[in-house]
Amino acid sequence: MEILEKLEITPKRESLFVRAFTHTSYANENKTESYERLEYLGDAVLEFIMSEYLYKNTEKKEGEMTKLRAHYVCENALYEYAIRIGLNEYILLGKGEEESGGRNRKAIVADVFESFIAALFLDQGIEFVKCFLYKYIIPMIEKKEIDFFSDYKSVLQELVQTDKRSLEYVVINEEGPSHNKTFTVNVVIDNIIYGTGIAHSKKEAEQEAAKDALKKAQNGEY
Question: So which residues are the catalytic ones?
Answer without folding.
Answer: 43, 114
